[in-house]
Amino acid sequence: MKKLCSIIMTLVLVGSLAGCGSSSTKKEEATTPAETEKAAETKTTEDTVYKIGVLQLVQHEALDASNKGFFAALDEAGIKYEADQQNASGDQSSCQTIAESLVNNGNDLILAIATPAAQAVAGATSKIPVVVTAVTDPAASGLVASNEAPGGNVTGTSDLTPVKEQIELLKKVLPDAKTVGILYCTSESNSDIQAAMAEEACTKLGLESKVYTVSSSNEIQQVVESMVGNVDCIYAPTDNTIAAGMTTVAMVANENKLPIICGEGGMVNNGGLCTYGIDYYKLGYLAGQQAVSILKGEATPAETPIGYLSADQCSLTVNEEVAATLGIDVATIK
Question: Among 54, 200, 231, 286, which is least packed, fewest CB within 10 Å?
């Protein structure tokens, strides 16, 4: 009996030690609540498919490039998304309708391309993060409290073009020009800003400036025809209505030997003479990087300053075919 008791006690002791060993192992493998939460957040970020709504004002080369650049940044960051691409075809009332639809569809973030599109989306939501691009001055357009500290649910990138340098390019390429016709659409606040800058730059260089405006694309041909004989050249800033109708502008202007200095390269490719401007793909990419930080929870629109491309990201674009048509030596431009 004593021997049996000894055996039983030995087995109990071994079992107790084994139990302690098992407990110790589990304790080493256990994670803290903070670690568990962090792992869950990482998994959510990696596995989540975000809903991205897009409102683009109109289809033309510059805005299309911004759109592509934005999603290239998301792709490079490994963000998974479903994009709802909407284009207002230059119709302001359509902007409002589309903006409300994108908000009601519960998107995680909305990309608004061009000022009227941005204003429509910002007016439709104060909660969903909104990233804008191809907007000259978000603060002046009423989109943010200030470009340095937006303060709300909107941030993005500005396409403020180097207007002063573009007018200086005009003076260099067309030294005999005395009167510059500034062409833009009155429905775009970003164009008002650039037109004022162009008038100031012309004055400083001793050039007379005359403003010609349209309220819609239907007026472009008539207005450009009215410029013939009254100006020596045309300056067209990064105005979306003019950019979308650039082939019409160029048809009339080039036929009448009116050189067009443009706000961006896409307009030059569609019939303008030249420009010194920004790369809209890079601008959209910068906006995409902002969106990545917002979606990952690393930043908020309120604390994300409006982004700008640096001066070294601007480049000279020349339409050599148009230069030949106008009898202008390309060497004088480059």
Answer: 200
Give the Cα separation of 230 and 193 in Å (integer): 23
Which parts of the chain fold into alpha helices (H)? Answer: 2-29, 33-47, 61-76, 92-104, 115-124, 163-173, 189-204, 220-227, 240-244, 246-255, 265-269, 280-295, 320-326
What are the structural domains, with CATH classification, of the chain? 48-159+279-303 (3.40.50.2300), 163-277+314-332 (3.40.50.2300)
Q: What is the pLDDT of residues 132-146, one digit of tens each?
A: 999 999 999 999 999
Q: What is the mean pLDDT of the chain?
A: 89
| CA 181 – CA 7 distance, rounded (Å) | 108
Tens-place pLDDT, residues 246-287: 999 999 999 999 999 999 999 999 999 999 999 999 999 999
Q: Render pLDDT for 63-74 as a digit per residue (tens, 0 to 9).
A: 999 999 999 999
Distance CA 301, CA 144 (A): 10
Q: pTM of the entire structure?
A: 0.82
DSSP letters of 158-210? E----HHHHHHHHHHH-TT--EEEEEEETT-HHHHHHHHHHHHHHHHTT-EEE
